[in-house]
Structures are given as structure tokens and as C-alpha cells.
Amino acid sequence: MTPVVLICGDVPLPLPLGSISTSSAPAVPDKDDFDEVFSKLQVVVDPRLIVVGSDAALAATLTRLMRTERLHIELAYVAEHRSDATEAYHLSSGARGARTALKGTAKPVPLIRDDAGIALVGCATVTGPDGGPLVGEAYVDDTRLFSGTTTSMTVTPTPRLPGMRASVEPRRRWLPRRWVEGRAVQLGSPAAALTRDGVPNPRDVKRSTFYRHDQEWLLVR
């Protein structure tokens, strides 16, 4: 295994990664920002890409691996602090996460994406426009998640099949959140504000679908 580090944004590099070849990218990399690190990965044996940054950086990296047919590359994630993605995949953060990135084992996990071709690694939230109530209807596979009006909808990936789960905000604060697992979540709404891994969609959407990709990705844990 040959590790290559991609530092996304202004984040500190954990000490365990200090002696490894690094490339830099913006906090949320675009497709051209991967040219340098992909060139490095192309010439090493058994490549492992270690992303240091936010959930949005990891999602952008996984999206690029998917779109360029590089899902055979092992992918590790080192977040400075705990995040939705570290919670979803039971990952450590900081120096401990860096040691896992170097010494952990890559295993296939379901890849969750949406109909815009963007990977989801931590959490997607959907509300009404400007954060207001969400009006519409959503299904997880054949199970209706809600119909009518709700405060918000949340979608997260899981490391096991069927690959994802979704819930809506409980009507009463003291009620437990009900999660429904499945391989696809479909939403229809007059207008909905979508945020993927902390990155707001530039426009409101009327339809949004998250589903399990036909290939898995190799996550180091």
C-alpha cells in the first residue's frame, strides 16, 4: 500500500502523516483540483488516497473517483473533529484517525449518490425554501416516509446494506427519531432546499433521489 495525502482547505496536517507526499486543494475541490494527486496515484503501487479536510472534501473526492472510474483506489478520511461522516462510518478523527488511515484495512462499502451524480458521505438535509417547512412526499424504497408537511428530512449513508437511511424531524421534540433503511430515497416537492454534506445546492429542487450506486467504494477503517 502506498499512501498519498490530499489536504483540502486550511486544516492542520496530523503528525502521523507528516512524512507522506501531499497535494493541496481548496476546501471543496473541483474536478481540476485533482489533477496533481491523481498523477501521483497513477504511478504508485497499491495506491491509497488519504483526504484531510471536511465531509464536503471527502464527498467531492469520492464523486471524482466515481466519475473517473477510479473506485479501485483505497480511500481514507481524516477529519479534524468528529463529523457526520465519521459518525456514519464509525471513524476516528485527528491523530487517531490519521493512524487508522495509514494502518487500517480498506473494505468495500455501499456508495450513496444522488440523481445529480454527487456522492453522499455524511448527511443530506432537505427543508422548505429558506429553511421553512418542507411540503411534499418522500419514500424510502416502497415505504412512505412522509406526506404533507414536515420540518425537515435527513438522509445518511450506512456502511452496511441496504446502504442508507432517512428520517424526518419528529413532530414532538421528546419523540424518538424514526429511521427507515433502504437502497433509495425519493422526494417530490413544490420547492425544496437541499444541502449535501454541508454544501447547499445552488437552486431549490422539485425532485431529489438518493440511491445506492452499482459499485462500492473502498473505505479504510
UniProtKB/TrEMBL annotation:
Domain of life from the UniProt record: Bacteria
Organism, scientific name: Rhodococcus koreensis
Protein's recorded name: Peptidase M50
